[in-house]
Design brief:
Triger factor/SurA peptide-binding fold, two-stranded antiparallel ribbon, elongated
């Protein structure tokens, strides 16, 4: 298998992009995907070059241990060592090219961290101000735990006509009204939805996440209540409303540390984008000729 020695960094970049974005080897990229991937790799390498040609890269050395850890992390994404080595071969990569690509990537990351030192800082007061200026971002909607039993309607089958499906769901409901604690058992036995495997559990849902007909019924039920049959495009449902989490505003004290971190990460990303744009301009700007 030959290796691309003209631009070895492009080989690694394409390897990473193909697996992370498309879930396949570079060799499996065809047509528009192949063109898109090539353009993205070229753009990425241009950015990396601008970063690595900057003054801020001076003196940065990537420890060998970091490269080894990065290789181990990549290996962990594959089923075994053989699958990992096969993926490298398909991408025309060897271990040395992989190490070089990872070292370059870690070098870029180190430079970007360096340029932000002392430039980005969010105080508690800044975070508090953001919290009070954007209260809607910290509002938690009402959630309801819901289980359901589904009997489908399909007029192509005699046992699933509208009338018979309704009759079956009403019989199930009749049993449950006498013994509500059997809902999970009845879901496992009779529901025609994959959630039957989990006792009909759909999970905790907010308004607007279910079929409109189910949503309207669920959010007018009391905790522990079993609904009347509800018709959807799939068939008839019985709903069981479990725990109800009331809407609330997340307290500042609960969210403050994560909010500061989130705001700092956002500011750091913005600062890095601006700095990268400046480096790209310097790298790609035509040289000026000064008359002697």
């Amino acid at each position: 298998m030959k290796y691309n020695t003209d631009n070895p960094h492009a080989v690694y970049a394409l390897f990473k992009l193909a697996w992370s974005q498309y879930g396949c080897s570079p060799a499996e990229l065809t047509g528009e995907r192949e063109k898109e991937a090539a353009a993205r790799v070229a753009h990425q390498l241009n950015i990396e070059s601008a970063i690595l040609y900057s003054e801020e890269n001076t003196g940065i050395v990537v420890p060998e241990g970091q490269v080894s850890a990065a290789i181990a992390e990549i290996k962990g994404r594959f089923q075994n060592e053989e699958a990992f080595l096969q993926a490298l071969e398909q991408a025309e990569l060897n271990m040395q090219l992989l190490k070089d690509g990872l070292r370059r990537e870690l070098q870029v990351e180190a430079v970007l961290e360096r340029v932000c030192v002392g430039q980005v800082q969010v105080s508690e007061a800044d975070a508090e101000l953001f919290y009070y200026l954007h209260p809607e971002r910290f509002a938690v909607s009402e959630k309801r735990e819901v289980r359901h039993i589904l009997v489908t309607v399909n007029e192509d089958y005699a046992e699933n006509t509208e009338a018979l499906a309704l009759q079956r769901i009403e019989q199930i409901r009749s049993r449950l009204l006498k013994k509500p604690g059997r809902f999970e058992e009845q879901a496992q036995k009779h529901s025609e939805c994959p959630t039957a495997l989990h006792g009909g559990l759909v999970g905790k849902v907010e308004r607007g996440k279910l079929f409109t007909e189910l949503d309207e019924v669920l959010f007018n039920m009391a905790s522990g209540e079993i609904s009347a049959p509800v018709r959807s495009e799939l068939g008839f449902h019985l709903l069981y409303c479990g725990e109800i989490e009331q809407p609330r505003q997340v307290p500042l004290g609960e969210i403050l540390p994560k909010l500061r971190q989130s705001l700092e990460e956002r500011q750091r990303a913005q600062f890095q984008r601006q700095w990268i744009a400046e480096q790209l301009h310097r790298l790609n700007a035509p040289a000026q000729v000064v008359n002697a």
